[in-house]
Every structure is written in C-alpha cells, then in structure tokens.
Write a structure and sequence with these properties.
The chain has helices at about 15-20, 30-40, 40-50, 60-70, 70-95, 125-135, 140-150, 170-189; strands at about 1-5, 25-30, 55, 60, 100-105, 120-125, 165. The chain is of the alpha/beta class and about 190 residues long. Strand 3 (about 55) and strand 4 (about 60) form a beta hairpin.
C-alpha cells in the first residue's frame, strides 16, 4: 500500500510520516530526493541561475531559495529542471514491494498522488506554520511567508485527498489523529 502525505510547509508531514514508519511503513521523503536532484541536475541549475548558486562546488540551497521563493517564474524554471527527475526517482522507489509513505508538500503538483492508494492531507493554521518555519529553518518571518506563498493551499487540493486532519499545534493530539488514520488504513489492507 502506498500512502501520500501532503500539506503546506511545516504542517507536520514529517511527524505523520514518522508515525507511519513506526507502524511498519517505509518513508520516501521527497525533500531529501529534492536535495539529491539539486546535485544530479547541478549543471543545468547553474546554467539557469548562474554560478552565484554554487558554494564550494555544491548548490547553495539558501542562495537558490532567495531566487526562487521571490519570483514564481524562477520557481517554475527550477521545477522544470528537477521535478521530472524527482518523480522518476520516487516512482522507482515505490515499485519496491511493501507499505510505503510518500512525504511531499508538492505531492499533487508533481502528480505523485497518482501512485498512491490513499492520500492524507494535513491542515494547519498559516501562523503556526510560519512560526515553525522560522524556528526550524532559521528563517525570517518574511522568508517563511514567501515559502508558504509559493505553495498551493491544501484547500485547493482537496479533491485529490482521501482524508484531512487538522494540526492545531498540540503534538499529542496530532499524533493521536495520525495513529487513528494508520489504524484505518491498516484495516483496509
């Protein structure tokens, strides 16, 4: 069984994924695959965005982020370079047998929901997500807001989602909601 987990930046996707992992699911973290893609597609990225995105011959994600999170056209340019490789990589990993979770903010946008048997959407108040982004990624409020604005809201993706759970910031309550989803999914297998 393949489960997709989606939601905006800092909504709790990784926490939900870890609960599925504790229940025997293998987790594919699409952010990590994105980091791989930056190195695999480094030459194309440098051609598209100049050598200013390089630091010690590696893609400087912070510098690239300054470019792509400020202009939607630049984000689209980066996505055209890395998303096809990322989708192919995820689909290759999913082909392995076993229960799998795909943790991806852009699950729907990348078309990865098509390989999922069940899609879980995580809803969160944007203010909580901004606070988490600032703390977790050491961002300014403006930088965290730009990351959120670069993503389509969960509300716009609901027709692709099987179940939505709210993350109101209470970790214990949120984890319990995810555990109930795991039990529901397991009962259908």
């Amino acid at each position: 069984m393949v489960i997709g987990i989606t939601g905006i930046y800092c909504s709790g996707k990784s926490i939900a994924s870890s609960i599925f992992h504790d229940s025997g699911f293998r987790v594919i973290d699409v952010d990590s695959i994105g980091h791989e893609a930056l190195e695999v597609k480094k030459d194309e990225i440098v051609r598209a965005f100049s050598e200013r995105v390089l630091k010690k011959n590696l893609i400087d994600r912070k510098e690239l982020g300054k470019i792509v999170f400020n202009r939607n056209t630049e984000m689209k340019r980066l996505e055209l370079i890395v998303h096809p490789w990322m989708v192919k990589r995820v689909k290759g990993l999913v082909k392995n047998d076993g229960d799998t979770v795909i943790n991806a903010a852009l699950l729907i946008e990348m078309g990865l929901h098509e390989v999922c048997d069940f899609v879980l959407g995580i809803n969160i108040n944007k203010n909580i997500a901004v606070e988490r982004g600032m703390a977790r990624d050491n961002l300014s409020k403006d930088e965290a807001l730009r990351r959120l604005r670069s993503q389509i809201s969960l509300k716009e993706k609901l027709h692709f989602v099987d179940k939505v759970i709210d993350n109101k910031g209470n970790a214990g309550e949120f984890k319990e909601k995810v555990r109930r989803v795991v039990e529901t999914v397991r009962s259908k297998v």
